[in-house]
Structure formats: C-alpha cells, structure tokens
Amino acid sequence: MLKYLIIFEKTETGYSAYVPDLPGCIATGRTKAITEKNILSAIRFHLDGMKEEKIKFPIIRTDAETFVFAV
Predict the structure, then answer these.
(1) In this predicted model, what pLDDT tens digit does every residue of 1-23 receive, in sequence order?
(2) Counting Cβ atoms within 10 Å, is residue 27 exposed (0-12), middle (13-18) or buried (19+)?
(3) Which CATH architecture describes the domain 1-71?
C-alpha cells in the first residue's frame, strides 16, 4: 500500500492539487470535492503509467503537519 501526500490550494476559480512525491501529477476542479476526485484519478493514471513502463515508484519523502498559532 502506498500513501501519498496531496496538497490542495484554493485558486481564484476553484482548487488545484498536486502530489509532491509524484512530479507532474496535478489536477484542478471548481470545488474541492471535484478536485479530490480528479487528483485521485490522476494518481491512479500516473502510477499505472509508471507500472506499464516498468518505472520504479519514487520513494515517499513528503509528510505534513498543521500547526495552529494564536496571534
């Protein structure tokens, strides 16, 4: 089982998402839910392509935390 970090960013027209450990794996959408669906499809497509081309999956290096600061 592989576990990839997905970064979601709010844009002027909706959302974008990317996977730091899978360069070039990106998606967009009008809503976060649509973007989530699109990035999951993009990840599957990306990994299937790597598998088909017999390219090793990259080492998972990215992790994230959320911290809350009182200012």
Answers:
(1) 889 999 999 999 999 999 999 99
(2) buried
(3) 2-Layer Sandwich (3.30)
